Structures are given as structure tokens and as C-alpha cells.
Amino acid sequence: MALPVLSSSGVKFRRVLAHFPQELSLAFAYGSGVFRQAGPSAGHSENNMLDFVFAVDDSVTWHMMNLLKNKSHYSFLKVFGPKQISNIQSYGAGIYYNTLVPCNGRMIKYGVISTDALIDDLLHWKTLYVAGRLQKPVKILTQNENGKLQAALVSNLKSAVTAAFLMLPESFSEEDLYMQIAGLSYSGDFRMIIGEDKSKVQNIVKPNVPYFQKLYSNILQDCPQFCFRHRFLPHNIDKSPEGQFTQLMALPKNLQQKITSLVDPPGKNRDVEEILLQVAHDPDCGLVVHQGFTWVRYMPY
To answer: What confidence score (pLDDT) does residue 199 get?
Structure first.
């Protein structure tokens, strides 16, 4: 199944892309400069910074070419050269950002991540930093024919649906589902307690429900544990221990590990499958999964 490409002209974004080396496995634009959001900043998207992520197969070569074209984009780190910049990129979430870059009359920021690091985050939710962005609507600008990357992009969406099902009640609305999905990457994020608009997730989802539908409708229709109904009717999910165990076993590896660390007392060293079966029978299963996300955010390794 191909990842849905969200429709809009995209001309202004591709004009920005033309300023950069074209050796990209994936490039996308995201955030309030791309998709309208509700709340205090609504109606001012033309003034918002444009945010991009570029995935590259060879970070050293890409930074070398970009330094030749756009040396002014880099901080003082440019004096150390592309190899050292790539080394710095490999820490944390595996992404290196250049920020506050003037381009075509707008301010932009762009992050560079290796294709392998992106695939790892999409499949295993190592940090959820880029995978979380790709669980929400983005504007795909270019994508090569890397089959492994394509499969990882779709896997990330399926995992987001599975995790959301575990944290939702048995009956919920379509908008509830998208709110839960959009909030996954903010679970345990300190910015949501201090500094960020507390309605951020709602402001993302409400104006963009059609884009969420385009991302997730095929996945939902193919999900055997989900009763897909008209969008204005309640949806139902299997909340039996057997159903929840199936969903827990389908979660990305890193989240499974965080959940088992929360539940398993030190020194017992039980199998992951045994621990997740215990969680599946727990009335607070959804809360345990939510706590696991907090650990992914604050203790990703």
C-alpha cells in the first residue's frame, strides 16, 4: 500500500526544495506553515515558519554539497566540515536542523536525517521525533523508490492506529481517533505542560480531518479488530484481553520494551510476551501504554 500523497499545489514548497542538493530519499513539509490550525494563530499561516525534513542516503556527501550551496545556513559548526556535522547529526533523534534560514521571502528551518535512521524510527519508534511528525498530515515533496522506506512509512501509520486503539475506550468517534493519534508524539512532552498551547492537538486535528482520513482510511478498513462505520456514527474496537494482546504484540519494539520495563519488577526478567499478556488483562491497559510513551520521550534508549 502506498503512502497517501496529500493534495495541494505544493509549488512554493518545491521552489524551496530547488535551493538544496537533490539527492533526497524523502522530503516533506509539515506544521502550521503548511496546514491550517485552529486557535490563536489561525489565519496567520502565511507568516509562520516553513518546516522541512530531508532524508538522505549519505549524510556526509549531502552536507558537503549543501555547504557548497548554502554555507550561510549553518552555525559555527560549518568550520568543522561535513563529516563532523554528520557525526553531530547521529546523536539524539538522529536529525540535524538549520533554523531561521531566509528563503524565497519566508523563514524556513530544515532537518536532515539519514534514510537508515528514519527507517529505524518509523519501524521501532526509537525516539518518535520524526515518526511522530509523519503520523500527522505532511506535504510529501519528493520520495524515491526505496521499498524499505515506503514499507516503514506505512508501518508507522499502522502502529499509530494500534497504539491509539489501546488508549481509546471501546466506543469512540472518528475525531477521537485522530486526536489520539495526533497526540501520540506529545505524550509526556514537557512542552505540553509548560509553554505550549494546551489545545495544540485539538487545533491540529479539527481543521484537518479530511487529511487524516486520507492518511488512515485504508488502514482502518483493513483492520480486523475495528468496526468501520460512517464517520458520524460511533466506532467500536475489540477491548477483550485477546484483542488487546494482539494489539500490544503489534506495537513497535521500543514501546514494547518501555511497557515491559514499567510492569516487570527488577530481577524477574520475564519474557516480553508474558508481560504483555498481563498488561492485556489489566483494566488500566491504556494507561500503561500511555506511560510507555512518556518513557519513549524521556528515556528513548
So the answer is: 84
